[in-house]
Amino acid sequence: MKKNSLLVLFALLCLVSAGAQTPDPNQKSHPDSGSWANLFKDDLSNAVYPPGIWSMTDGELTASQDECIWSEGQYDSFILDFEFRMGEAANSGVIVYCSDLKNWIPNSVEIQILDDYAEKWRDVPATWKCGGLFGHLAPSKQTVKKAGEWNRMTVTCQGTMIEVMLNGEVVVRSDIKKWTSAKTNPDGSEIPAWLSRPMAELQTRGHIGLQGKHGGAPIFFRQIKIKGLRLAS
Fold first, then answer.
1. What pLDDT does 25 receive?
2. pLDDT one-digit tens code per residue, 108-143
3. Between 20 and 30 A from 216 (CA), which of 12, 116, 148, 163?
4. Under 8 Å CB-to-CB from 115, ≥6 apart: which residues?
């Protein structure tokens, strides 16, 4: 009886120990996207952009001016995984759910890319920081690397839910249908005037875009992969 009791106690301790090591279901890591489809072909033949502005060299995509490059198709329910490297004081972005390429700013959601460490951007609102939903939701923490280093970002869009992982940390997880105003965010902070359409009214499908050399600082992208997308009709 004593031996059996010790065995039972040992088993219980093992279960408790195993339970303590159970990972948090909310903890994630960047996906293994090596076998995923490229968002853009190497020759950019499936992209929409002004001639002569964007180029792909040795797998790195960059722009010479402040113009966007867009996916030819429109997508919903996708995971976008890529790396980016900023010049000093860079200000760029990843754009999803864009329904109007000519007037994209109020008709899309922009995930901000910013050199948070630059003096130029020191005093900008928290909703302008890297990894946040520009003008709408600040990232939960600062995980962007300094200019010149490669960063990795994974953007998951599932209907009105958007999640952003930056360098191994989830910095945004939110439902854009909560943004029913074009003037103030749910937390009461001010929305920039040029974002004149509430996010709750946006279509949850559209073109995917990258912002170019905004503010005069270069930006580079590579390994731009996409999975689980459904081409919208």
1. 37
2. 999 999 999 999 999 999 999 999 999 999 999 999
3. 163
4. 86, 87, 88, 89, 90, 91, 121, 130, 144, 146, 147, 217
What's the pTM? 0.86
Residues of the chain with pLDDT under 70: 1-27, 229-233
What is the reported pLDDT for 215?
80
Q: What is the dihedral of CA 178, 95, 111, 122, to 10 degrees?
A: -120
Cβ atoms within 10 Å, residue 37: 10
| Neighbouring C-beta atoms of residue 158, cutoff 10 Å | 13
SS3 of residue 154 by DSSP: strand
pLDDT value at residue 229: 52
Residue of 150, 136, 84 lying closest to 113 (CA atoms):
84
Tokens of 196: 């004149």
Quote the radius of gyration of the chain (alpha carbons, Å).
21
Closest CA to 98 of 202, 168, 215, 217: 202
The Cα 140–Cα 196 span in angstroms is 24
In three-state secondary structure terms, 96 is strand
How many Å apart are CA 201 and CA 195, to the nearest integer? 12
